[in-house]
Amino acid sequence: MIQKSSITKRWLLNSLGVILLIVVTLIATLSAVIQGYVYNGIRSALNGRSDELTNMFSSYGRESPTEFSTAARSYVENFPNKESMELMVISSSGKILSTSIGFAPDEDQEIPDYEAALKSSGGYGTWTGRLSSGEKVMAVTRVMRSNLGNTVGAIRYVVSLEDADRQIFIVVGALMIAGLLILLFVILSSYYFMRSIIVPIKRIGATARLIAQGDFKARIRKTNDDEIGRLCDTINDMADELGQSEKMKNDFISSVSHELRTPLTAIKGWAETIQAGDTDRQTFSRGMSIIVRESERLSGIVEELLDFSRMQSGRMTLTMDKIDLLAELGEAVYMFSERASSERKFLLYEEPEMLSPVLGDINRLRQVFVNVLDNALKYTSEGGTISVTADEEDGFIRVVISDNGCGIPAEHLPNVKKKFYKANQTVRGSGIGLALADEIMNLHSGSLEVESHENIGTAVTIRIPTYDKLENELQET
After folding, report:
1. What is the pLDDT of residues 278-307, one digit of tens each?
2. Where are the transmembrane segments (predicted)?
3. By three-state DSSP, how is residue 283 classified?
4. Helix (H) or strand (E) segment spanning residue 71
5. What is the pLDDT of residue 280?
6. Where does residue 307 fall: left (phi above 0), alpha (psi -120 to 50 degrees), or beta otherwise?
7. Closest among 444, 463, 467, 461 to 356, alpha carbons compared
8. Pairing with 161, which of 6, 92, 134, 248 sits 20 to 30 Å away (CA)?
9. Interatomic CA distance for residues 191 and 184, integer angstroms
């Protein structure tokens, strides 16, 4: 059953309707042309006969009605085509004197062609219609006039069109059968063509519903390398991406849950210990210090999640100002110096003498440095080195933070800036820090590039245009 709103129904109403209209119009036109051709042929034959008659009576039989009557009767008696057409002799008064068939004529039958011939200057008239008996005929009348211009009589040729119409009907029937065969061929070929489209579309729809319901392993079987085949590839690729995104989201939730649970466990444990009231001053101070530190860690995680939410919704705003990027970088390095020392790692910073100012959000840029330095320390083993350098080149400030840690495998490197993505699930972290840092740099018209080799190390290059470069570009536009 064809659904109310389906491609097949629209095709039936549009394409097939147009084809049907074209075929019907073509058959009707050809039928009219064939009928016109046949009738014109018959009319031409009758005209030829009447021309012969005119030539025959040009030298005699036109002096008086009596002479015409005598000559016409003789012509009728010797007429060779009596079987194919009827010949009538009409007097000057309009009365039928004799016919080639030998039967008495119907006196009530009108003779429109004779009336037309009387009015015609050439004495010629033609008529196509039905007799009182119902037979369809074509008639041609030639009026004969004397040398003085008086009507002396007329000869009328009458041909039945029944056989001609029968032949025309056969030809038109053949055309209709041909038209039906064409329509049948179009319907069958279109059916298989539409089926080749609709069946894959139904499969695509069914698979898409499975994907929408969360079955990211559902795949569409590709049968043809055409537009539908490419659509199948696209949906399959989409399912792969959604599956990876779902996995990264689940990993993210698990990672964040772990990140939140660890400081909460420490805070709860020390709070219960202090609440018990049997702690000495040193234990109390140590517990409060851990509670404060873990609370700050929780606050940082929550703030990072909020920033990520703002980034996703496009609501992240920047407070732009002319700042000294070197000062912010130095402060970020200082923040991690104690941590690097406690973890027995070397944090080296080659501070340049001076760099041009930049236009940026001081807090967001510091957040970028903090995230990258935090990652460098996390993925660098004890005894490893983290190096920080900064320079200016072609109107850009370039900060490179490199380490000799575990590095990133080549298959993970293209995805490290994607949200939720973590190449190493054994190290703490939410997987959104680098994605957030990359978005912040994009908002500053800068960039963040990661280069890494497994078991060798990683280098993160941060580039941001100088204040003067941005100002010149604005003036040019």
Report:
1. 778 888 888 888 888 888 878 877 777 777
2. 12-34, 168-193
3. helix
4. helix 65-77
5. 80
6. alpha
7. 467
8. 92
9. 10
pLDDT exceeds 90 at position 459: yes
**Number of C-beta neighbours around residue 16 at 10 A:** 15
Q: Residue 87 pairs with which residues in a beta bridge?
A: 157
| CA dihedral sign of residues 72, 74, 77, 82 | negative
Hey, what are 377's tokens?
């320390």
Three-state secondary-structure class, residue 400: strand
Q: Looking at the DSSP assignment, which residues form a beta bridge with residue 359?
A: 322
Confidence of residue 384 (pLDDT cuts 50, 70, 90): very high
Other CB atoms within 10 A of residue 336 CB? 21
Q: Give the contacts of 199 (CB within 8 A, at least 6 positions apart).
A: none
* pLDDT for position 98: 77
Tens of pLDDT, residue by residue over 225-247, are: 778 888 888 888 888 888 877 77
pLDDT band for position 2 (50/70/90)? very low
Q: Which residue has the tokens 């119902």?
A: 134
Q: Model confidence at 449, in pLDDT bands (50, 70, 90)? A: very high
Say yes or no to pLDDT of 43 above 80: yes
Rounded Cα gap, residues 138 and 247, in angstroms: 89
List CB contacts of 189: < 8 A, sequence separation 6 or more. none
| Residue whose tokens read 């795949």 | 219
- Count of residues in the chain: 477
Q: How confident is the model at residue 1 (pLDDT cuts 50, 70, 90)?
A: very low
pTM above 0.70, yes or no: no
Contact in structure between 355 and 326 (CB atoms under 8 Å): yes
DSSP conformational letter for 413: G
What is the distance of C-alpha 402 from the center of its chain?
Answer: 48
Q: How many CB atoms lie within 10 A of CB 325?
A: 24
- The contacts of residue 32 (CB under 8 Å, 6+ apart) are none
* Helix axes of 362-378 and 325-342: crossing angle, nearest 10 degrees: 30
Contact 433, 406 (CB under 8 A): no
Looking up tokens 């604005």, which residue turns up? 474
Q: Which pLDDT value is given to residue 59?
A: 54
CA distance 190 to 118: 60
CA distances from 261 to 251, 270, 290, 298, 467 (A): 15, 14, 15, 9, 43
Please state, rounded to an integer, the average pLDDT across all residues of the chain. 82
If you write DSSP's letter for every residue of 96-144 in order, what string do you get? Answer: EEEETT-SPP-TT---HHHHHHHHSTT-EEEEEEE-TTS-EEEEEEEEE
Percent of the chain with pLDDT over 70: 88
